[in-house]
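Morning, I've got a small favour to ask if you have a moment. You're getting the sequence in one-letter code plus the fold written as tokens. Thanks so much in advance, here it is:

===
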Amino acid sequence: MDGLTMSEEREALDIMAGIAKLAVNAKFIITAPIPLLTANRPGSVTLSQEQCACLLAHAFYCTFRRERHTFNLVEELIDYLMFSIFHGANPLSHVKLRFILNYFSLVLKKMPTGCITFRREVVPYDRVPDWEADETPLPVVAVASGGSIEDSHGCLQVDFAN
């Protein structure tokens, strides 16, 4: 923990202990298997913010359990992403680590009580629009760099991922 004061180091160690406790309590926090949203199949998964924090705690310590001989790409990817933060040559790795520790610091002080829904929407291949042939003009789009999503009432908010 180079570059930290003694109090910052103590705080970081306390946060890491809290993250470990959160991970250890997974069987009480996540009481049923979490379904995987697979490609080309619509579906949704709703998790409490505590369950999300628990999953992130396991990702932080790269401690996802592997059941028998199954291979889960999501677990492998998350393990890789966290491993790259700890062992990466990226000069911003320490900034990412501070961000993660700040998230856990806030969550460990007061666990949020909301829910998060992850939804996969699928358009069948035979119904995908022919964008190159479509001549419908796009509406005017206003982009704001200030404020937060939570303060933007009446706005459409979408996160696109593949």
Notes: The beta strands are 43-48, 115-120.
